[in-house]
Design goal:
alpha+beta, six-stranded mixed beta sheet, 8 helices, globular, binds (3R)-3-hydroxy-3-methyl-5-(phosphonooxy)pentanoic acid
Length: about 325
């Protein structure tokens, strides 16, 4: 087969995954809820390499992608050397979930190239999961739940769209505070939280309840409640991270400025809420009609370098 190219969008968690029940299989301790985006995407191309070794064209460390490739090879018994290129059309490793979209795009490309699309999508998502847990959510559009499951091998640890984007239309204004790589990757930071953070267990005890409440708020199309829950969950996760030893603080001055701005916007009766992943960048969610006003307000923040605009994906495939 000649070269294949695939893409996948990133996703942003509203109820976070922060901790693993199995580090080898990359299974989460608790279920999570995310929105899959439209514009921020990764692209992967795969073709047979001319020599005897795999060739990687990828920004940063290829070890996550290597785990995905090993799983795909094991499943397909196809061990041809491959030439792989993965690129993101937005900053990598900066808490904008580039590993989620890039591992999803790469696993899809391997599903085409090595398995000729003959394997169930769910199986392809398990390859992606080995590179980035949260990538399994990037295979599905709209509001997505990734079920932690209980099976030891992770057979019931799967993601699925729970609501279409139109259930509660939301736009995003992404404040890029720093587009460089983060000081510590999420896997190492999760492990440090597990080993040392006093609130780690309590965070997980509350997470399922928060997830159920978030699902109810979506059923009721209650943006305000969804926003409260998302902010609470994000701040609880960052507290766990900050209280790890040695402490990790992903926030930068621009992060605090953007948080303040969102609180101010709400005082001015503009419905908006924020969420922040393992990095300094702030994603502001609002009903679509407020996106432009929020964008203009964010332009005044001195700590924000770049602003990206996005919305929830109605579908994840695009023609390449
Ligand atoms: O899947 P990873 O290893 O990139 O970790 C993702 C962790 C968070 O983005 C902070 C939370 C989440 O649920 O996406």
């Amino acid at each position: 087969m000649k070269k294949v190219q695939t893409s996948a969008p990133t996703n942003i968690a509203l109820i976070k995954y922060w901790g693993k029940r199995d580090t080898k299989r990359n299974l989460p301790l608790t279920s999570s809820l995310s929105v899959t985006l439209t514009n921020m995407r990764s692209w992967a191309t795969v073709q047979e390499a001319s020599g005897t070794k795999d060739l990687w064209e990828i920004s940063g460390d290829p070890s996550k992608a290597m785990r995905v490739l090993s799983a795909a090879r094991l499943a397909t018994e196809d061990h041809r050397p491959l030439q792989v290129s993965i690129r993101n059309d937005f900053p990598s490793s900066a808490g904008l979930a580039s590993s989620a979209s890039s591992m999803a795009a790469f696993a899809k490309a391997l599903g085409h190239f090595l398995a000729q699309d003959q394997l169930p999508l769910e199986q392809v998502t398990t390859w992606a999961r080995l590179g980035s847990g949260s990538s399994v959510r990037s295979f599905y559009p709209g509001y997505v739940v990734w079920d932690a499951g209980t099976d030891l091998e992770g057979k019931d640890c799967i993601a699925a769209s729970r609501f279409h984007a139109s259930q509660l239309p939301v736009s995003l204004v992404v404040c890029v505070v720093n587009d460089g790589p983060k000081p510590i990757g999420s896997t190492a930071a999760m492990e440090r939280s597990r080993a040392t953070s006093p609130g780690y267990k309590a965070f997980h005890q509350k997470n399922d309840e928060m997830l159920q409440q978030a699902i109810q708020s979506l059923q009721k199309k209650d943006f305000e409640r969804l926003g409260q829950l998302s902010e609470q969950n994000c701040l609880a996760m960052h507290k766990v991270i900050r209280e790890s030893q040695p402490p990790i603080d992903y926030f930068l001055p621009g992060t605090h400025q953007a948080i303040e701005l969102v609180r101010q916007l709400r005082q001015d009766n503009i419905p908006a809420f924020f969420t922040i992943d393992a990095g300094p960048n702030v994603k502001i969610l609002s009903p679509p009609e407020y996106q432009e006003q929020i964008y203009l307000a964010c332009q005044k923040l001195t700590g924000v370098k770049k602003i990206l605009l996005d919305q929830i994906a109605e579908q994840v495939e695009v023609s390449s």
